[in-house]
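Let us work through a complete example step by step.
Step 1: write down the sequence.
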Amino acid sequence: MATEGSGGRRRGPQQLDAVDAVILQALRANARIPYADLARAVGLSAPSVADRVKRLEQLGVITGYHAAVAPAALGLGVVALVGIEQADDADQDQIAEALAGVSEVEDCWFVAGDESFVIKVRVADVDALENSLGRLRKIRGIARTRTTVVLSTRWEGRMSSDAGSDQ
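Step 2: predict the structure and record it as tokens.
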């Protein structure tokens, strides 16, 4: 079902207007920003902004809020990207479910190419990485892994700043 946008323009449920884009950009920069501050940024009332944020949550555009924590502060100083080749007779959903049960796996992507999955593993040290890789190789359906150790992180978590601006 389409909803009315500003100026009577109709838009689909997943389309965002310029006000939504500003709200999202502000929330990505500071998820704790008060609605009053958001309202000033977009020229609406705080209740209108609250309604828009609620709609963005209901549409699944905003999927949650979290505290960004420095991994080193938690003793997690080693990051590795691990490519996983799936055995020919393996089930990708079963592998994904098994990977979800490995606490060191921070992110998991199903990808095209020689590998079926790429995961990000975050651990305390190289010994912990070796143990994690050993456990990964024991998961039924994983034929082989290829590991790249991250030396430093220049930036991560970036998203296009103009998402939705052409809607």
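Step 3: interpret the result. The two ends are 17 Å apart (CA to CA).
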